[in-house]
Amino acid sequence: MAKQVKLKAEPRANVGRSAVRKLKARGIIPAVIYSGKDKPQPLQVAARDINAMMSHASGENVLVELEIAGEKSNRAALVQEVQHSPVRGDIVHVDFHAISMDETIQAEVPLEPIGTPNGVKTFGGLLEQSLRAVAIECLPRDLPDRITVDVSQLNIGDSIHVRDIPFPSGVTAKVPADLTVFSVLAPVVEEEPAVAAAEAAAPGPEVITEKKEEGEAAAAAPGAKEKEQKK
């Protein structure tokens, strides 16, 4: 399950590019927390804290307990989006989504296969993953980092659908149950060498050569027909 991480933040009064540049020069990352009831609140967090949090995150969904300076109680939130610099890859902005620990949330969780399918190991098949992440609904405390699926029993032609996945307790899928997640395909058969061999064995050129040789032999013996008539 997703581990709730404590993170200190401060309200951010100044907005705009100039203010953001000054924050970055001081090692501070601008952020915003969104809530369905209140207006978005600009925040700022220490770059070292947000970098440490994201580097230790075991999945895409990070559950955060925000300790905002000046507020009496901490606020639960999910990391909604992390923006990176296109050049250096540094974190430049973070969006949080405020949540209630007593209300269900929806999130996308990565799907991860475990094991080697029998159809791949024994018969040379290919494991195909059609769904990389699945939308789920659950309470924040039940939010998984990822969902693992055992694919070791799959043979050629077998598939695993959403309905076949054993979701953790308290977690419900929010996608159609008949969606295919994993399947094992038959190995690809190479046909080009066989076609080339068949073309090389074609008798056409040999017949033409034989006829040509017969014609040349007849032209080289013009008196053969006269001798036959005298007899």
Structure in words:
Helices cover 23% and strands 35% of the residues. A 6-stranded mixed barrel has the order 1-3-2-6-5-4. It has 2 domains: 4-98, Ribosomal Protein L25, Chain P, CATH 2.40.240; 105-185, Ribosomal protein L25, C-terminal domain (RNA Polymerase Alpha Subunit, Chain A, domain 2). It has 231 residues and is α+β, with helices and mostly antiparallel strands. The N and C termini lie far apart (109 Å). The protein is built from 6 helices and 13 strands. The radius of gyration is 35 Å and the shape is elongated. Strand 4 (63-68) and strand 5 form a beta hairpin.
Fill in the keyword field for this structure:
elongated, Ribosomal Protein L25, Chain P, 6 helices, alpha+beta, 4-stranded mixed β-sheet, RNA Polymerase Alpha Subunit, Chain A, domain 2, 231 residues, 6-stranded mixed barrel
Tally the helices: what do you get? 6
CATH topology of the largest domain: Ribosomal Protein L25, Chain P
Structural class: alpha+beta
Rg of Cα set: 35 Å
Considering the protein shown, what is the CATH homologous superfamily of the largest domain?
A: Ribosomal Protein L25, Chain P
Strand order of the largest sheet: 1-3-2-6-5-4
Number of domains: 2
Low-confidence spans = 208-212
Number of E-state strands: 13
Please, what is the average pLDDT? 84
* Strand coverage percent: 25-35%
* CA(first)-CA(last) distance: 109 Å
Shape designation: elongated
Tell me what the CATH architecture of the largest domain is. Answer: Beta Barrel
Q: Helicity, in percent?
A: 10-25%
Largest β sheet strand count, sense and barrel closure = 6 strands, mixed, barrel
Provide the succession of SSEs: EHEEHEEEEHEEEEEEHHH
